[in-house]
Amino acid sequence: MKIVTFNINGIKARLPRLLEYLAEQQPDIVCLQELKTSDETFPEADIRDAGYGVLWHGQKSWNGVAILAKGQDPVERQRGLAGEPEDEHSRYLEAEIDGLVIASIYLPNGNPRPGPKFDYKLRWIDRLAARARVLLAEELPVVLAGDYNVIPNDDDTYSVRAMQDDALMQPESRAGFRTLVAQGWTDALRTRHPGGGVWTFWDYQAGAWQRDAGFRIDHLLLSPIAADRLLDAGVDKDYRAREKASDHAPTWVTLR
């Protein structure tokens, strides 16, 4: 089973690239982030025509997450995270597919820092951690897949110096991510590539793609039962080079 997380960076603009990816790779499950479209304008018909059932949690112009499943409809479990009732950002969607629990996550960027956006990011990590503890207690195969907007380690970026002031790499961001993983989750990509140097994002600016100046912010965290089924994990990097591509590449794990 191939499970993909893919920050699509605007599903309307990237729909041809997404349909191309589905046709070529035939993943079993895809978690999308940064849809940048409302619920009403989400391209459900195009995705169903490609052979995928779909759930989505949209937001006009910003954020938005979705879960696609090949040949079936994901069964929704939860949308949004508890803890801040006034939070209207569409950043979390959770579903069940064939006994597997899957969440699509778009964690806040947090820039500029310091400030309210960075404070929101840290609170959001804590809220995610609270939900993650509940999921672990269910003792099911779970995958928390998404754009976490956290560079966990120095070897997860092309340049520590270039990113040292960014919210993605602050000690508080890293500590939140480490605390989450320490609950008992397995970072699939890190497990398969322990030496680092694997990027999932390349900015559109300053020739970042051409220079391979990227970093790793898209993660798939596995519960113990899911981790026992881990076969491989990687990045479909070539898709970042295509015309009008997202600035993220599809990042994946395969499970037995």
From TrEMBL:
One of its GO terms (molecular function) is double-stranded DNA 3'-5' DNA exonuclease activity. One of its GO terms (biological process) is DNA repair. Mg(2+) binds at residues 7, 34, 147, 149, 247-248. The record marks 248 as: Interaction with DNA substrate. The record marks 218 as: Important for catalytic activity. The record marks 149 as: Transition state stabilizer. Its EC number is 3.1.11.2. This is Exodeoxyribonuclease III. It comes from Sphingomonas glacialis. The lineage of its organism: Bacteria, Pseudomonadati, Pseudomonadota, Alphaproteobacteria, Sphingomonadales. The gene is xth.
